[in-house]
Amino acid sequence: MFGDGSHATTRLCAAAIDLLCRQRQPEAVLDVGTGTGVLARIARDRGARLVVATDIDPVALSCAKAHSDLDAHPVQIHFSSEVPDHCGARFDLVVANILEEPLRLLAPALCRALLPGGVMLLSGFTRLQMPALRVLYENAGLTFFRHCSLDGWALLTFTSKH
Fold it and tell me: Is 84:31 a contact under the CB 8 Å cutoff?
């Protein structure tokens, strides 16, 4: 099921966010396609001081905000329907757990949102779809770091070359 944190792609992203927040302590995190906001909330709980969560679905944004408000956390998540690069290159961690086609279409905007030396996590696609997405994002200027998979779903990790 999507949205409650149990889907393999969400579990892959959640584990990667947790690890990266512990290792690198990103200041600013962008969660593209936030859905219920679970990944944004994990980043915030692991110390990110600026968290922006975007989605094209107004119902998802409303749901994510409602879930976030239940946490009574001092750091507010900024929910938005804006494009990923609306704030410019501001994020040291960008995560997008969305389907392959939107990942293809959003590649330039996702890359423009990432700070030099930042990390990008991509999921929401199968292991069979992974090679083409890897090439696309490498051609967009990112450096492939690693991949992992769970139950046939994949996660790609890239770093910014700049």
Answer: no
At 141, phi and psi to the nearest 5? 110, 5
The half-sphere exposure of 78 on its side-chain side, counting CA atoms within 13 A, is 12
Decide: 131 and 67 in contact? Cβ < 8 Å: no
- The pLDDT confidence band at residue 3, using thresholds 50, 70 and 90, is low
- The domains of the chain, with CATH numbers, are 8-160 (3.40.50.150)
- How far is residue 115's CA from residue 42's CA, in Å, rounded to a whole number? 20
Helices and strands (H, E) in the chain, number of each type: 5, 7
* pTM of the full structure: 0.96
Query: Residue 139 is which amino acid?
Result: N
The yes-or-no verdict on residue 112 having pLDDT over 80 is yes
